[in-house]
Structure formats: structure tokens, C-alpha cells
Amino acid sequence: MQEEQQPEAAADAMSSSDAPEDGPKETSSVSQNISDADAFKILLEMKLKKRQKRPSLPSTVTELDAEDGSKVYVVGTAHFSDSSKKDVVKTIQEVQPDVVVVELCQYRVSMLKMDEKTLLKEAKEINLEKLQQAIKQNGVMSGLMQMLLLKVSAHITEQLGMAPGGEFREAFKEASKVPFCKFHLGDRPIPVTFKRAIAALSFWQKVKLAWGLCFLSDPISKDDVEKCKQKDLLEQMMAEMIGEFPDLHRTIVSERDIYLTYMLKQAAKQIELPRASENEPRKYIPAVVVGVVGMGHVPGIEKNWNSDLKIQEIMSVPPPSVSSKIFKFVIKATFLGLLGYGCYRIGHRTVQFVLSMPATQPYLQRLTEVSQQWTWSRVWSGGFV
Questions:
Q1: Are residues 268 and 285 in contact, defined by beta-carbon separation less than 8 angstroms?
Q2: Which residues make beta-bridge pairs with 362?
Q3: Per-residue pLDDT band at 139 (split at 50, 70, 90)
Q4: By CB count within 10 A, which of 98, 287, 309, 349 is most buried?
Q5: Residue 64, H or E segment
Q6: pLDDT (tens digit, 9 = 90+) per residue, 277-314?
Q7: Helices and strands (H and E) in the chain: how many
Q8: Counting Cβ atoms within 10 Å, is residue 24 exposed (0-12), middle (13-18) or buried (19+)?
Q9: Degrees (nearest 5) of the Cα angle 271, 175, 49?
């Protein structure tokens, strides 16, 4: 993640090493002896001066106040939107935050370092290797669910020619330009979400959901995306498909609203100023936080903001139900059956093709002659009764 800028770098930048050798020695001595605490204060003052007291923010930003005076600016985005990327950049530049929190977990952090071209290619290519990796990481049921959701994302990617998560990459870049700005991952780990989602469904609900995801093909335009800025496009499509499964909506959306709110509140803690000595009293200032989340999560974050949140329950993974075990067995049996049939068909056709080749005919004729000679020799020797 984005590391804090080192105060020593600021001290070196402010030194008078570039001054002429015959210059005042007192000035050089003062600059070289500047403490880390003083350097931190200087950079912090520069940052606070750049921070706008009344920032001009996009309409997609929601302001939230913490009890200790800290400020949180939540940018609601559409995951496939150029406009959302501009909103994120403008917000970070205006408020000069101390922490940036994004709707990602450690399992999806790799998208921050990929370029758009690579991400576009990765999003469109869903192959057996990715399926095996998802199953190995999350289990059979959760892995299949993840691949189906990736198919939804890939469908949007193919329709729009735009890779998802551009707003998160812009947030990462802009946070690196702000002195002492930390970068936090604020979403619940995706394996936990998928496992809880699968456990919430009955056997037939799993089949019906998988069927709906497999045959998604409705066209999407860029205008549709921008119209969905009041509700994230990907989550809106999912909400339409899982509308009859309230437990699934609870695990994929509502529980993550709680988790995102909790992480934003944890980030919005007052910042301790550096002290010149241990005897100096501790001083704190309110923090400024920017949260970058899908627009569909903003109402839930507002709803939960003033609540006493506990996330232990929504982080637990329930044991698999009987229906999950049955579905898992059916999936495995179907996969192995198709694999075996495919091998049989390929092997049978391959043998037929090889035997029909002209180059193999002499060998087949020779083999027939040898076989006939062996048969007659057995007959004359009394080998057959």
C-alpha cells in the first residue's frame, strides 16, 4: 500500500547543500539540524494550507462527521465511468486527505497496479485456469459463484470497452501525491462474502441464480452507465437478478455496507502531532478521510454511520448446508462425467483418424497377415479344440 512519505526526505530537501560554500554558515547549520518533528510540522502546514476550508466538491460526494471532529467525504461511483474517476481526483485534490479508503480487499488489490489495457484483457478472458484458481482459493461453490459474477463484469467490460475499477486506480495515484496520506482497503474479503452468500441460498435458488448469470446478454451503453450514477451499474444488475433472494442481497450488499462503514470510522481517528520531547503533551487534530465506494453502498453507509457497529458476526463463515453438499456433489459429478465423455470421444475419433490414414495401411495389412498365420499355426498344432 501507499507508504507515508518520510520526514527525512523533507529535511534533506530543505537543507542548504545547494548554497554557495562562502555563504552564511549559521543558515547552513540551522537547516542541517532541523528535527524530524519540525520537518513533519512544516510539511503538515503546507498540506493544511493547500486543503480547502470550503472545498468545491462533485454532487456525488456525501459528507459525514465523526464524533471527534474528523471529516469523511464519501465519493459514490459507478465502477465503469470516466466521470467517476474525475470526481475522485477532484475530491482528493480539494480536501488533501489524511487517509483514502477504497472498496477493495486484499484479494482484488492487484488491479491498482495494472494498466487499463491489461485489465481489459484480463476481464474479458475467463478460462479454465481462472476457474481452478477461484475454486482453490474459495472452494467449489464460492469459486463458481465468483466466476459467474466475473462473467457479469466481463459482459459489461465487453459491451463498454472499459476496464472496471478505474476510480480506485485514480484514488491510489492521487493519494500518493498528498503528503502523509495513507491508503486503506475497506471492503470485506471476497471469500467471506461469497461463502456467506452461498450459505444463504437453498439448492434450487443456487441453480436459478447460476442460470440467470450464465445467460446474461443484454446490451449496455455508456449512457446507461452514467444514468446509473445514482446506483452502481454492476450492483443494479445484480439486484435485478437477485431481487427474489433477499438473503443474498443481505450478504452481498447490506453486510458490506456495515463493513465499509466500520472501516471508514476506523480511518476517521484523530491524528497525533509529533512531539519535540517525551515531556511535551500529546496533541491531536481531526482527520480528513476520503472514501471511494460504489454508489449503491452510500445509502447504507449513511444509515449505519451513527450506529455502534460490530463486524464479528458478518465475518464468520457458516458451515455448509445439506443443499450445498448436494449441489457440490452434482457439480463435481457433472464435471467429471463431461470430462470422461470428452476424453472418450476424443480418443475414439483419434484412433479412427489414425487408422484411416494411408501411411498406416501397410502396417495394418502386415498385422493382419501375421495374425492369420498365427491362427492357422495354432489350429494345425491342436491348439484349438
A1: no
A2: none
A3: low
A4: 98
A5: strand 61-65
A6: 788 888 898 999 999 999 889 999 999 999 999 999 99
A7: 18, 7
A8: exposed
A9: 60
